[in-house]
C-alpha cells in the first residue's frame, strides 16, 4: 500500500477573506464553491489537482497551543518563486515569521518563507535550494518546527 497527500481541508472564519488570500498568495483556481449560508466552502487547486478545501465552520484564531495542525507546507520549484510569494504576503500584510526567506536549518540550502493566513493558520512556502544566503533562525533545530 502506498500513500500520498490528497488535499488538505481547513476550517476558516470568513470564506471570502480566506479564499482571496489563498488565491493571491498561491495562485490557486476555484474549482467549486458554495454560498449556502450554512454550508459555505471552496475547493481550490492548480492544473486540475485539488489541493486545498476551505470550510467556513469556525470562530476565532487557530490555536498553536493545542493538538492539531502545526503548519501546512507547499514546495515550489525554485527560490525565485518563494521570493515572489513573499512579496505578495508582505503586500497583504500577513504575519510573516523570521522576516523573510530563511533556510530550513543550519547549513541547509532548502528553505522558504513562514507566515500565517488570516485565521492564524501557519504556512510555509519553500524551495529545495537557494535559501542559504541567510543564517537559520533557530540553532540546532528545524526552522519549520519553531515559528
TrEMBL record:
Keywords (A to Z) from UniProt: Metal-binding
SUPFAM superfamilies, sorted: Glyoxalase/Bleomycin resistance protein/Dihydroxybiphenyl dioxygenase
Record-linked InterPro entries: Fosfomycin_Res_Enzymes, Glyas_Bleomycin-R_OHBP_Dase, Glyas_Fos-R_dOase_dom, Glyoxalase_1_CS, VOC_core
Record has Methyltransferase as a keyword: no
Residue stretches making up the VOC domain: 4-128
Domain of life: Bacteria
UniProt protein name: Catechol 2,3-dioxygenase-like lactoylglutathione lyase family enzyme
Lineage start: Bacteria, Bacillati, Actinomycetota, Actinomycetes, Streptosporangiales
